[in-house]
Amino acid sequence: MKALVISGGGSKGAYAGGVAQYLIEEERRNYDLFLGTSTGSLLIPHLAAGKINKIHKVFTNVNQRNIFSVSPFVVHKKDNREYVSIDFLNSLWQFIKMKRTFGESKALKRYLKKNFTYEEYSLIKESREDVVVTVSNLSKNIVEYKSIKDFSYDEFCDWIWISCNYVPFMSLVKKNGFEYADGAFGCVVPIREAILRGATEIDAIILESESMAYNKVLGKNPFSLMINLFGHLLDQVERSDILIGKLAAKNKNVKLNLYYTPSKLTENSLVFNKKLMSSWWQQGYFYAKKKCQEARSNELRMDK
User: From residue 270, how far is each of 42, 67, 199, 277, 278 by CA, in Å?
Assistant: First the structure.
């Protein structure tokens, strides 16, 4: 059983879309199982439904207004670099309302339901083995995996949305008596979960460079510094997920193909820039093409 796994990564999900497009359309990879975390959970339902052109348009045109109903920060641009500072008025209003997050992401929930239809949901349930999204149950301090087979359309849309909620900058959601947030807080790359669900071959798209050998520019204010700190912690979770996934694949004799970003795409994945995301989608497509061609060349050399 073939599985496609897409990691978390905010706006960098556009790169994953390009990789997935090449693998599905050109390599004819017919996946039975789709797993995603955070931005990956937004991509996989459309990929599972075969709506690649649609998700390309939807994803590369998303902006801050489509994500945040209450935006916690202001985006600044200096020397071709985008960075953020706190929106004091919105954050103060959140405190006055006794909210526990700097911002709210209810706009993303509306955007999701507008672009992922009940017909597509039904098509997936009929034609695919499973589509699974990752969420973090903060009340119980565990990671949970939500299958499309177990929920109605509205409930599954809720889980997709919850998987993307990067607290404390986005909504903290109470559901079924528990409080949930972004799946990346517990599992950035659910490779092991794909293996546990029966995958025998996995293509995992990881929205980070393989070496991670770069000097990060830390935030120039406490708010952007906090975002950098969260990013650092999630990088450590991601490394652990990949290591665990590789070991599980080796023990179960599962073929594991890893697709990293060739370079650092952005310092702040909560900034959604149409021009950059369109470029990343193309980069992902051509990177996957190059990687697949190199793999075939290596196989031919080994056969000789």
Answer: 15, 9, 31, 12, 16
